[in-house]
# Entry
Amino acid sequence: MAHSPVRLPLPLIGEKLHSTGSQQFHGKRFISSKTMKQTLLVLLTLMATTSFAGDTTFLYCFSGLGADERAFQRMELPPGYEARFIQWIKPEDNENLDHYAGRLSAQVDTTRPYSFLGLSFGGMVALTMSRQLQPRQIILVSSMSKPAQAAGIVRFLGKSGLYHIFPFGLFLIPNRFVYEAFGAKDEGTKKMLAGILKDTSIPFFRWAIGQMSHWPGVKPPPNCWHIHGADDKIIPANIVHADVLVPGAGHLMIYDHAAAVNKLLAGHLR
# Structure
């Protein structure tokens, strides 16, 4: 972020100085100790209150299964944080989540302070990547840390191997069942979800369902913080160990309960 030049009450050498702010010594003028102390006080105040670009922490956001940054469009971060959105890449043949996360980590600038925020499936990827990198913080939103916390249908499709042949295209067609499963109640949320489902890659969706079922899980480290919707049907709240439950919120709470989520983020990212 560019900053306007700061005007300090410090006279330039050669300028005429007021008698109250300068002293003469052998015919030359010098800044008085009083003026110097005032100037140093101004400098210290500026250093304490000014935010420079180098102080910004990048918050890398991992979207849900097949989703993109549209899910985060209502998210607001406190000062000092800048959202960066991880872009899903095409999985390689028989690629597991560890290897996939390693390839995805190329999108993270490790020369700058950074943290992770993972939404749903993105939380699994963020946790997996955190074993390869060292983010300052990991925030899980509507996510899980082990396969047993997924909805029963997801576990069944994965363990039975039916995810290889299941017609996921039908599941990606917006309908009453899908809206209810995701907790999409208002028209804005339904429209956002329908757009994401329309653009979801079925091969990626199929691969991710398999990974959700066979992923060994990651024990959340001490710097991990988990917020979850109390009415989540995709990843039921009663089988995860979230730090905070948002009353009345479903799986898409980062969008349709954005005010509550933003308030929680502002309190945590201090």
User: Anything to note?
Assistant: The mean pLDDT is 83. The domain at 56-268 is CATH 3.40.50.1820 (Rossmann fold). Strands lie at 22-25, 28-31, 57-62, 81-85, 114-119, 138-141, 224-229, 244-246.
